[in-house]
Amino acid sequence: MKKIFIVQILAVILTAMVVAGCGAVPLTGRRQVLLVSDQEVYEAGLTQYNDYMKGAKLSSNVKASSMVKSVGKKLADATEAYLKANGLESELDNLKWEFSLVADDQVNAFCLPGGKIVVYEGLLSVAQNEAELAVVLGHEIAHAVAKHSNERMSQQIMTQYGMAILSKALSQKSAAVQTVATSVFGLGAQVGFMLPYSRKHEYEADYMGIVFMEIAGYDSESAVGFWTKMSAGGGNASDFLSTHPSDNKRISEINRRIPEAKSIAWNY
Ligand SMILES: [Zn+2]
């Protein structure tokens, strides 16, 4: 019985890949099922982002706000340079970067599709210099470049609607996209209730993040120090860790891949 169920699930995934398309993550080459167009994901994320920003208060700390923007821009430029150098210019159409610092004591940060990245002031109590801030921003940029939102929405669509949705009219599919966007990002009314990323996405974003850091000229060793502080932080750090699950294995995995990140940055 169980076996039949697994076969059915595999059939759904395979059909989904054929009907809707699949992609490969830059840098890691991992294949992923993407049921929603980049444009639809971007628009759904933008609605959530605008709703959130309407209620948010921008930081009054001018120096810190401009640091978030300048470190973000450096990393975004490095990321775009990497994508261009690897024949992935078409991906740039879906990346419209925005880096904001909001007045909120939570130790947190998030990224919405297309590169709308928000850092909470509280995070700067852990990320205490540009390189440590680059660890967080590089990681969030990686979530955007790897289209983790699209993948999570696609998984939700498959879970909630099954195969039927793939053959339905596009208008019904768009309604489904709006519904899953709300449950995946959930920023509107209940701020901070985004679905947590999976470990697989976290490790992938860590790896891609340290490569982008190195290309931008930051030392990726900072990632080890930052995550060690984060995991020792307890209390407030749990805000960020609730959407970005972490454990000791994560830090050793980052450590293991630093030489690789440096070598890619050197040779890309
Ligand atoms: Zn993450």
Could you characterize what this model shows?
This protein has about 270 residues and is mainly alpha-helical. The protein has one domain. The chain has 11 helices and 5 strands; from the N terminus they run αββααβββαααααααα. A 3-stranded mixed beta sheet has the order 3-5-4. Strands 1-2 form a two-stranded antiparallel ribbon. Helix 9 packs antiparallel against helix 11. The longest helix is centred in the first third of the chain and has 24 residues. The N and C termini lie far apart (about 50 Å). The site of zinc ion has 6 residues, from helix 4 and helix 8.
List keywords for this structure.
single chain, about 270 residues, mainly alpha, 3-stranded mixed sheet, two-stranded antiparallel ribbon, 11 helices, 5 strands, about 5% strand, globular, binds zinc ion
